[in-house]
Amino acid sequence: MNIKGSLPLLVLDALSKGSSYGYQIAKEIREQSDAVLDFQEGALYPTLHKMELEGLIEATTTVVDGRRRRYYHLTPRGEGHLAAERHQWMQYVKAVNMVLGAM
User: Fold this and answer.
1) Domain map of the chain by residue range?
2) How far, in Å, CA of 37 to CA of 100, rounded?
């Protein structure tokens, strides 16, 4: 499942726990959602690139086992954006639950 627009929020949340690289971010999201949320590389890497251009995250390149790996981490701007997006998401979930009668 891939709820449109949720990937940037999930990436920011994953990076709020510490620096990570693309595959590990996707794996963490998949595992924490019991495999309900499964974002493919074709969606993840363009999102990471866009977020980097927006100044929400920064990347550093490290060599691991002879291979280059880009590690991403939140910027102060990304931390603020995450807080705002979390608030908006919770309002959205509450409203949908009210419509569906879950509250």
Assistant:
1) 7-101
2) 21
- Its sign, for the CA torsion 5, 9, 48, 32, is negative
Q: Quick check: 20 pLDDT over 50? A: yes
Give me the DSSP letters along 14-55. Answer: HHTT--EEHHHHHHHHHHHTTTS----HHHHHHHHHHHHHTT
Q: What CATH number has the domain spanning 7-101? A: 1.10.10.10
- Going by C-beta distance under 8 Å and a sequence separation of 6 or more, which residues neighbour residue 102? none
Report the distance separating Cα 14 and Cα 24, nearest Å.
9
Record the pTM: 0.87
pLDDT tens figures, 65-83: 999 999 999 999 999 999 9
CA 44 from centre of chain: 9
